[in-house]
Amino acid sequence: MKKLPTRKKGRLIIVAYRLPFKILKNEQGTSLFQNSGGLVSAVLSLAQGRENASFEFEDKIQWIGYTDNTPEELAGVTLENENFRAHPVFISQELNDNYYEGFCNDLIWPLFHYFPSLAKFETEFFEAYQEANLLFYETMKDIIQPDDVIWIHDYQLMMLPDLIRQSFPANKIGFFFHIPFPSFEIFRLLPTTWRDAIIDGMLGADVVGFHTNDYVEYFLKAVRMVIGQGNRMHYVNLNSRLVKVDAFPISIDYNKFNDAYDDEKVVKERKAARAPLKKKIIFSVDRLDYSKGLLNRLKGYERFLEQHDEWHEKVSFIMMVVPSRDQIEQYQNMKSEIDQTVGRISAKYGRIHWQPIIYQYRSMPFEELVGMYTASDVALITPVRDGMNLVCKEYVASRKDELGVLILSEMAGAAAELGEALIINPTDSQDIADAILKALEMPAKEQRKRMKAMRHRLREYDVFAWTNDFFTQMLMIEQEHDRLSHE
Ligand code: ADQ
């Protein structure tokens, strides 16, 4: 068997739109609150070094990201905790409006989630995007050292890999894309110069990673169409170097969710959710976003109630929605439509002692989230498009009892890995209604069989395996480049 390469030199530089902590300033001084999101825990696994890891990094992890604090506010403040040293990128409000709110969230997000009619193609958005990517580069150019490995994340920074490559040809650069990469018929809707700049920008990396093989295939097709370059077996052969393009399905910290099952606070939350209802619970949790299929989900549940009065008063659907971008008109409209649909269903089917839907618009602490995951009989996850979707993975990992049924949209990247879920088409209300019935009636033995298989897969390929896999590819391509340069 071919020996995997190892690397024990250089630092790791992460670049993502946001810094890994919130910076709060008050009279007592400055405090840093580390985020607990997926990327931060994934990167932490690299910081802490794992047994048998084929790489180790020197120093703390350097993290480049945007902050909404001003340079004056942060003057003299040490932006560092035990894991990370942060290098803030300062972007003016006006630029950020056109860059982040504009190009990223009013164009790329809707377009790449197959909502072209919501995409706004404004020239000033594109100019701001270029300018902001350049600001990230300017912030990092004095930080990069010869052996550093640079790992860039997501659709906010598609031009950064090439900007770095131009001045630092020898550094290893990875790029990971967290949202779907769309089929060429969608991608080609971008103006020609924009799509060329995006492809050139991303190909500045040595390894470009996506969640699924479909996204890899679509990207490689876009590369062929845009730069006319042939690619073979997941490699793009540029004149001077090779770029590896592959699927790395992001995962979660499996043990954290699995172990939380017995945590005292989680047990309390689980009881608190179950006791007052004394009914079967269907649960969902997402950010407020049109890609998450919240209205489709409600319509599917409504159809289920319409067709199955034998289940009335025996089931409640708890739908948690995390506030997101609700200053924007489109999101406000969507929220009003959700509010109205929930109101309509409750008014039609609700009874004094039975709420068919419990809908809350707020964030949840970890213990409450796992309490809900483990209290529910069914998780109903119906995005109309989702790069991966971590909620379904968290649900499965939390079910140490091996019970519960996952209903999952075929449009989530995760569907490729979780085939034992009840897979539905999110635009088909009848499909959702049928799956709800099947889930509620599923015998415990079958629940166990399906859960076991999914849990096994997630345990094997958790977020640490994900980072390890990505970095192994980075090392392999480094080895390949070294070999070619010595030939
Ligand atoms: P998101 O679109 O944010 O991520 P997702 O992958 O589902 O979507 O992750 C959401 C995270 O937020 C989960 O960890 C979940 O626990 C948490 N969360 C959701 N609702 C919450 C609530 N009410 N309270 C507290 N926490 C809540 C993007 C892409 C995804 C891709 C990820 C990672 O859109 O497709 O899976 O990045 O690459």
Automatic annotation (TrEMBL):
Judging by the UniProt lineage, the source's domain of life is Bacteria
GO biological process: any one? trehalose biosynthetic process
Recorded GO cellular component terms are: cytosol
Q: Which GO terms describe its molecular function?
A: alpha,alpha-trehalose-phosphate synthase (UDP-forming) activity; trehalose-phosphatase activity
Query: Which family does the similarity line name?
Result: In the C-terminal section; belongs to the trehalose phosphatase family.
Name of this chain's protein: Bifunctional alpha,alpha-trehalose-phosphate synthase (UDP-forming)/trehalose-phosphatase
Taxonomy of origin reads:
Bacteria, Pseudomonadati, Bacteroidota, Cytophagia, Cytophagales
